[in-house]
Amino acid sequence: MVLSDEKGSDNDNTDTLDKGDFAEFFDFGTGIFAAILFALSLIAYKSLKTKRILYVSIAFALFAIHVIVSRLNLFIPEIESSMLELILSIMEFVALALFFIAIMKKESVKTKTINM
């Protein structure tokens, strides 16, 4: 026995999250946010000149590029999905490694001593 809703149709209760539009919106938003954070961290690097900020800036750039590369199959259908998945996985790994390096790296503080 098949249960159906009052209208007699099984397909009327579609979930709006199943359409994928909501997830793609957040994926695109993540890319835009990463690009903004990349620009801000690059500006911070130019004024501070610390390698930690440079590593963070490159990691944010990788996350922004990640969104573009993840949509490459829409523009270049010939690209294999296994190759695309490998590229995306490597980019995520490198970005996370750069964040780790930026957190763990100790900057050398240059102090001036006054000789009297």
- Helix/strand structural class: mainly alpha
Low-confidence stretches: 6-10
Number of strands: 0
Total of DSSP H or I helical runs spanning 4+ residues: 4
Largest sheet: none
Overall mean pLDDT: 80
Element string (H = helix, E = strand): HHHH
Distance between the termini: 97 Å
Assess the beta-strand content as a share of residues: under 5%
Rg over C-alpha atoms, rounded to the nearest angstrom: 23 Å
Q: What helical percentage do the residues reach?
A: 55-70%
The backbone outline, from C-alpha atoms, is: elongated
What structural keywords apply?
elongated, mainly alpha
Tell me what you see in this structure:
The chain is mostly helical and 116 residues long. It has a domain at 50-105. The chain has helices at 21-48, 51-70, 72-75, 81-104. Helix 1 packs antiparallel against helix 2 (51-70) and helix 2 (51-70) runs antiparallel to helix 4. The protein is elongated, with a radius of gyration of 23 Å.
